[in-house]
């Protein structure tokens, strides 16, 4: 959602969200005047809150009540107005190092222990998946021209599944048209090079390679290879719905947002009986690997595709073995949660597990 806010509007939105997270009560101008040094009058705060409401970032649950953040308001708060807590990230790392003993415990016991620490430090339901081991390996790769300027990538995995992608190849600035024979020779050279270097490696690993290292004359294929292999990796490495370690349910469900019995039952049913749906959601990878994107996914309210948690926030990240994502770490709570802390906790836990598995 693209909403341009002034500095004053950002500050008042930040204060409103922060106050609501702390109190679970609709926020009025008087509360903001008393709790925050906003440097403006109560009338100005009311006017700004009215603008934020018209923009869809706040709403009034009742006519006479104060304002409450909407999912869109939380989204701007998370994306633009906060920084994850470095102090809490260090606390999580220290707690995991102190209380978990990789050399003495079974894998399942370790992940259960990590989930318990994550739940207690975040105040949310913690979710940690068992490692994913079903990773497709590259057996053969071939680039071929099917007509002038149109090429196909064919990938054969170790279980003999075949996958393909097409692209249109545009001439470079120095070329006025494509020479089919030159393209055929280049494609064979690139195919041979990639097979000799990449055979036997996981497609998930290939999706994170730096294709810019290709020789300059083959750069025209770099972006196509990067996006194609990433897409093939997502299609060939289907989640196997490994067990999810769940901790902290009782504490979170006592929050006022979960006062309706039916809502609690649907969440518990999801956590206990439909873990495969949840697994796919928290293990989901970005469509294109982008170093500028946050490595922690935050899905707020209606951004969650699963109906039982469309009033919740799900924060997740993957842990890795080397460069290969093998499992997920996440927390689930009401949209009214301490995002600075929760994001920091998830990132720190994912880093710790990645280091341990590597």
From TrEMBL:
Cite the Heat-inducible transcription repressor HrcA C-terminal domain residue spans from the record: 108-343
Which keywords, in A-to-Z order, does the entry hold? Answer: Repressor, Stress response, Transcription, Transcription regulation
**MF terms in GO:** DNA binding
Any Pfam family hit: HrcA
- Please give the biological process terms from Gene Ontology that the record holds: negative regulation of DNA-templated transcription
In terms of domain of life, where is this protein from?
Bacteria
Known function: Negative regulator of class I heat shock genes (grpE-dnaK-dnaJ and groELS operons). Prevents heat-shock induction of these operons.
Q: Which family does it belong to?
A: Belongs to the HrcA family.
* NCBIfam families named among the record's database cross-references: hrcA
Instruction: Report the HAMAP family cross-referenced here.
Output: HrcA (MF_00081)
The protein in question is named: Heat-inducible transcription repressor HrcA
Organism listed in the record = Tolypothrix tenuis PCC 7101
- Gene name? hrcA
């Amino acid at each position: 959602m693209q909403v341009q806010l002034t500095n004053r509007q950002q500050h008042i939105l930040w204060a409103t969200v922060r106050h609501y997270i702390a109190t679970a009560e609709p926020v009025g101008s008087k509360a903001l005047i008393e709790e925050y040094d906003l440097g403006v009058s109560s009338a100005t705060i009311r006017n700004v809150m009215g603008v934020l409401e018209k923009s869809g970032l706040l709403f009034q649950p009742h006519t006479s009540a104060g304002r409450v953040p909407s999912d869109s308001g939380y989204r701007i708060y998370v994306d633009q107005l906060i920084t994850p807590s470095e102090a809490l990230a260090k606390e999580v790392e220290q707690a995991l190092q102190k209380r978990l003993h990789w050399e003495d415990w079974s894998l399942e016991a370790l992940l259960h222990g990590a989930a318990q620490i994550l739940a207690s430090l975040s105040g949310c339901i913690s979710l940690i998946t068992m490692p994913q081991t079903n990773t497709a390996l590259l057996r053969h790769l071939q680039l071929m021209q099917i007509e002038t300027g149109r090429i196909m990538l064919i990938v054969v995995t170790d279980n003999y599944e075949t996958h393909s992608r097409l692209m249109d190849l545009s001439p470079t600035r120095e070329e006025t048209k494509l020479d089919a024979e030159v393209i055929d020779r280049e494609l064979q050279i690139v195919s041979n090079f990639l097979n000799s270097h990449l055979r036997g490696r996981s497609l998930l690993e290939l999706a994170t390679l730096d294709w810019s290292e290709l020789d300059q004359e083959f750069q025209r294929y770099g972006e196509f290879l990067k996006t194609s292999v990433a897409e093939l990796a997502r299609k060939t490495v289907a989640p196997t719905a490994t067990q999810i370690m769940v901790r902290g349910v009782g504490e979170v469900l006592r929050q006022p947002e979960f006062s309706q019995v039916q809502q609690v039952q649907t969440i518990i049913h999801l956590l206990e009986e439909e873990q495969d749906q949840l697994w796919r959601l928290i293990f989901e990878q970005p469509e294109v690997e982008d170093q500028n994107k946050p490595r922690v996914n935050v899905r707020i309210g209606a951004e969650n595709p699963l109906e039982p948690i469309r009033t919740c926030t799900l924060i997740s990240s993957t842990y890795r073995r080397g460069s290969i994502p093998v499992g997920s770490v996440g927390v689930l709570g009401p949209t009214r949660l301490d995002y600075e802390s929760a994001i920091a906790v998830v990132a720190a836990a994912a880093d710790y597990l990645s280091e341990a598995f590597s």
